Amino acid sequence: MATKSVLNDSKQVERAVALINLGARLQVLESETDLSYERLLRLYKEVAGRSPSKGQLPFSTEWFLTWQPNIHASLFQNTYEYLTKVSALEDIDAIMKAYKLYMEQIAACGVEPLLSITRAWRLVKFIDNNMLSMTKCSKCGGHFVSEAYENSRHFECGLCSPPARAGKGAGAGGILLH
Description:
Its cofactor is Zn(2+). Belongs to the FlhC family. The chain is mainly alpha-helical. Helices cover 49% and strands 6% of the residues. It is elongated.
């Protein structure tokens, strides 16, 4: 019979609390911790003060390829990839740190965040499973989220070649192009 580690249990609870505070859905907590569903549910209610959201997680890659979400997703993914290269963080810890940095950067720019921690987590899973990839823009050299097998020779990002109506909307907190 294997003995339960109090230290490991404490680390799992700490990770779950951090994810809840970032707004993660219950399915993310279940996937990234070893805690039981019942325990996560009680923990979620205690930390968030409400029951977790119900329903399926977003599963389409298309959201990440539209203009503004692509810019946000690319900012997050570049940060995440940098953190995984320069540190020995576990994947979920790197996702949480990259998400916090993304939120700080977005706030500094005065732009509304479009990426939730759950979408950021899903983005990493999509890239890990080769459903999406990062492609270098042939104009600016930045790396952007793209279709899995995008030809980088002719790829132009949404900042270098925005759609016709991009950045012209009156929506507060959006990216504006001049």
